[in-house]
Structure formats: structure tokens, C-alpha cells
Amino acid sequence: MSDLAPDPELTGCPAGAPCPERDSYDIKARELNPGLVVARALPQRQRRLIGPWCFLDRMGPLEVTAEHKLDVAPHPHIGLQTVTWLLEGSIRHRDTLGSDQVITPGQLNLMTAGRGIAHSEEGLTPVGGRLFGVQFWVALPKAMAECEPAFAHHQGLPRHIEGQVTLTLFAGDYASQSSPARYHSPLFGAELKGSGDFELVLEPHFEYGLLLLKGEARLDGETMGKDRLYYLGTGHQETRLELRDAVIICLGGQPLDEDIVMWWNFVGRSTEEIAQARERWQQGGFGAVPGYPGSPIAAPLLEGQLKAGR
Ligand code: MN
């Protein structure tokens, strides 16, 4: 996915941001394409990062019609990995490496942008169906920020079942299992689905974010809302979840000890790096996405924001 906002903000994410014991934040939903409501959980003014996770969008649920569908034209990324995770529907991914991959619920698309990649995403859900998913970005650590771009698709991810709740692991380790997906810093990412109680074991060096996508749930006795992101700071050993026909996404990681800058679809270390990536995209320097039937997305303006000192 692309950051579809027409006026993306230049966002500094300083290292060593305060890490409260627990907190929660409102999520603001915006209709970006006709019918497509996207709710941005990260970054927020009070919380820019959770571990290395720097961007978290809930997309849909979208009732697909001839006019209301997902079609994200080619757009670039640098300095990050994108994680696509669906609850309903299907999406076709194509990128400048020549990848062409359909993803359906329970599978993982992991794209490593490194020094630069561009991709498109087209919803394949037929009219009358629904599309519902999340996209996350992971900031690459400085040593890997300019690595070779890569794309991987994973199915048959590790699962941990307790009673009627299934944890599917798309990042990191849980209960002696490891996700096969390759990341570059200590982190965790899982979907919890079902009904019943679940004692989620936490890594005390990690901070965590939890998002309720479907159904009803309680987090350590507190009723979860779907328009809130729940944060747990470092130092927790476990958290108690009660799910009722629910789907919860949990992300975690060691707090990032680097300053990063985010703008549009880029993660960098300076505004100059971001401006250079924007210019490279505008000049066609990321290459073409083979097979996409349309024009790429033009980069929004950056200059005005820099002049305004933001
Ligand atoms: Mn994207």
C-alpha cells in the first residue's frame, strides 16, 4: 500500500521517545479513495513508533462495487519493509523486481524496499465481496537501510493454538516457534483469532501495540475499542486477552535507538535523503512495474513543507 494521503506530513521519529507503562490512542479514519476508509494507527503525534514498526493502516472493510475497489498504482518505497495482511478478499502485488503475487487471508507479503523498490496493489475481490486488511511498515535499521530490495510471500505460517484462539505468527518468535519471514531487528507480529481467554507471553525488552479488527475483546480486563491503538511499554511479562469472535493484531519490538524521518512512502535518516528519493522517483529512477495497466502515482509536494519548517 501507499500512503494515499494527498498531503503527507514530514514526520521525525526521534530515538528514545518516552515509553509509558501503558497507553491508548485514538485512530482517525479517512476516506482516501471513494468508499475506501483507511484508519491510521501509526504514526501518531504521541506515538511515532512501536519497536521498529513505523506505520500501521487499517484498510476497509470495503464493500466492493464497480466504483469502490482497491487499485493502488505503482509507487516507491525506501528504507523500510512493507507487511500486507488480509482478513477478507485478495490483492495482486506486482513490483519492479518482476514479482507478481496474489495474497489471500492468513498469508504474508513481505517486501523489503532497502535502497528502493516500486510496487502496485490491485484488489481482486469481485463486486459484492469485501476487502479488509492491514498494512504495516517496519523501519530498517541503518545498517540495512540501503540493502538490496526483495519480495517474499509466505503461506503456512507457524500457529500456536490455545483453546479456541489461534495465534498466527508473521514476525518473530512465539512459544518456541519462529516466523520464516526475514526481518532485520528484534520484533514480533501476530494475528490472534477466535473466542476465549489467551495469556499472551511478552518479551520484557519489547514494547507492544494491539489493535482489535473484528469482534469483541478485553485487554487485561479493559474493553477494547476498534478505533483505538493499545500500547504496552517495556517490562511486561504477559498480557491477558479475552476474545469473543475476535481478530486482534499484536505488534512488538525492541524500541528503535535511531532517529528516522518519514515522509510519504519513504523512511530515511534526513530530509535530504527523502528529497533525493522523491526526485529519483519523479525521474523514473525506480524502474517500471511490469504488467501494471496504468500510470504510476506522482509524488506529492515536499518543498512547501520544508519551507514551512515542518
Ligand atoms: Mn506500498
| Strand coverage percent | over 45%
Radius of gyration (Å): 18 Å
Estimate the global geometry from the Cα principal axes.
globular
- The count of DSSP E runs of length 2 or more, i.e. the number of strands, is 24
Order of helices and strands: EEEEEEEEEEEEEEEEEEEEEEEEHH
Quaternary organisation: single chain
Q: Provide mean pLDDT, rounded.
A: 93
Structural classification = mainly beta
Q: Report, as a whole number of angstroms, the end-to-end distance.
A: 25 Å
Could you name the ranges where pLDDT drops below 50 across 5 or more consecutive residues?
A: none
Share of helical residues: under 10%
Q: Can you describe this structure in just a few lines?
A:
With 310 residues, the chain is mainly beta. 5% of the residues lie in helices and 51% in strands.
Structure explained in plain terms:
The protein has 310 residues and is mostly beta strands. Helix content is 5%, strand content 51%. Strands 2, 14, 15, 18, 19, 20, 21 and 22 form an eight-stranded antiparallel β-sheet that branches. The two termini are 25 Å apart. The mean pLDDT is 93. The structure holds manganese (II) ion. Residues 1-2, 75, 77, 82, 119, 265 line the site of manganese (II) ion. Manganese (II) ion binds next to β6.
What key phrases describe this protein's structure?
mainly beta, eight-stranded antiparallel sheet, seven-stranded antiparallel sheet, 5% helix, binds manganese (II) ion
Write the layout of secondary structure elements.
Elements: E1 11-13, E2 22-26, E3 28-33, E4 36-42, E5 53-63, E6 71-77, E7 80-88, E8 91-95, E9 100-103, E10 108-112, E11 117-123, E12 130-139, E13 150-154, E14 159-162, E15 165-171, E16 173-174, E17 177-178, E18 187-201, E19 207-219, E20 222-223, E21 228-232, E22 238-253, E23 260-263, E24 266-268, H1 271-282, H2 303-307
Antiparallel strand pairs: 1-23, 2-21, 3-4, 4-5, 5-12, 6-11, 7-10, 7-12, 8-9, 8-11, 10-13, 14-15, 15-18, 16-17, 18-22, 19-20, 19-21, 19-22, 23-24
Bound molecules: manganese (II) ion (MN).
Manganese (II) ion binds at residues 1-2, 75, 77, 82, 119, 265.
